Every structure is written in structure tokens, then in C-alpha cells.
Recover the amino acids of this structure.
């Protein structure tokens, strides 16, 4: 089984990413369950604006699109900015919009029988809003969102330290992240054994 992590931090490599650090708790648990994990830091790529899977010359999205189609599990990780997902996360979701109209050989939307979850970090409140926005979009695209397929970390309203700078709250975020990974993996296994069929015509 394969998983793809799309980190939607605003920080280009090689800058440390708080969001990636928490997401790695989830991916480590997936690896322990035999899942092969690939990781993409979206801000490092040239993701052209649009809602097609290939926007033409210079567009790096087709490679990510291929990774999505090669993965049964998707984790989207985003920081919270102004109580909302990052602009990079919004760009990723807009590019994934094309998948709604893409189908496999059996007429199923290509996101069917794939599962997804969300990781959020930030030094302000708003994590549940970010989770609902990203999770709702992924459900529209066709992904299955298991119960409690998310984790987050923040230290309340207002400015504060970053995830990598403060150990408070890590135990809860990590425990929730491991549960998220377990729920994603178990649901992916269930869908592999009993796949969704094409929607009724």
C-alpha cells in the first residue's frame, strides 16, 4: 500500500517546517504498518493556477497528479494562517478539482477507493476550520474520509511559539496522529477488499 504526503507549508526547502514535523508522526505510523510513503513540499514546485491536471509548459502538477493516482492514502498537511488553510493548500485543492471529472476504466471517479486525512499546525486557533475546509474538499473530489482522520497542534488564540519550539501539546497531537494513521490504513484496507462501485447513472 502507498501513501502520499503533500506538505502545504509556505516555507521552501530546506527551511524547517513545523507542519512537516507533525505530519512525520503520521507517516511514521503508516510506515510501521507496511505502507510506502512519498512526500511532496508543494511550495518547492511550480504549480500553475488552474483546475486542470496539466496546465501546460512549466507546470509541475502532472507529476503530483501521477503520485496521487499511485497512492491509496493521501495526507494533506497545512499551517493555519488567519484561521484558514495556507494559500499553497488552496492551490493544491484547486488543482485536484480536475479529479472530480476523471474516471477509471470502470467509470468510477479516480479518487474513489482512496482515503485521505489532514494535519494542521499553527500558533493560533482555527485548526478545526482548516480541517473541515480541506476534508470537505477532499470528500467532494471523491476521497473517503475516515472518522478522526486528522491531527493538529496549536497553543490557543493569538501569537505564540511554533510546534518545533515548544513541547506542550505534543503528546496529544502525536497520539491523535497515530490514531489518524491507523484509521486511514484500516479504511484503505477495507476499501481494497470491498471497493466502491461507479455511481448509479
Amino acid at each position: 500500500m502507498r501513501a502520499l504526503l503533500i506538505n502545504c507549508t509556505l516555507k521552501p526547502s530546506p527551511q524547517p517546517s513545523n507542519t512537516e514535523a507533525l505530519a512525520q508522526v503520521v507517516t511514521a505510523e503508516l510506515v510501521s504498518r507496511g505502507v510506502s510513503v512519498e512526500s511532496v513540499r508543494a511550495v518547492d514546485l511550480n504549480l500553475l493556477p488552474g483546475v486542470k491536471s496539466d496546465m501546460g509548459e512549466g507546470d509541475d502538477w502532472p507529476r503530483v497528479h501521477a503520485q496521487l493516482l499511485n497512492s491509496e492514502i493521501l495526507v494533506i498537511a497545512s499551517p493555519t494562517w488567519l484561521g484558514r488553510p495556507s494559500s499553497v493548500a488552496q492551490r493544491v485543492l484547486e488543482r485536484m478539482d480536475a479529479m472530480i471529472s476523471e474516471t477509471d476504466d470502470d467509470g468510477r471517479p479516480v479518487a474513489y477507493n482512496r482515503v485521505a486525512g489532514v494535519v494542521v499546525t499553527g500558533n493560533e486557533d482555527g485548526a478545526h476550520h482548516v480541517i473541515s475546509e480541506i476534508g470537505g474538499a477532499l470528500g467532494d473530489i471523491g476521497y473517503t474520509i475516515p472518522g478522526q482522520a486528522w491531527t493538529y497542534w496549536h497553543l490557543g488564540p493569538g501569537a505564540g511559539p511554533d510546534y518545533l519550539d515548544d513541547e506542550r501539546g505534543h503528546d496529544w497531537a502525536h497520539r491523535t496522529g497515530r490514531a489518524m494513521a491507523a484509521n486511514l490504513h484500516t479504511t484503505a484496507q477495507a476499501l481494497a477488499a470491498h471497493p466502491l462501485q461507479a455511481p448509479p447513472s
Notes: The beta strands are 2-7, 36-41, 73-81, 84-85, 115-121, 150-153. The longest strand covers residues 73-81. The radius of gyration is 16 Å. The chain has a mean pLDDT of 95.
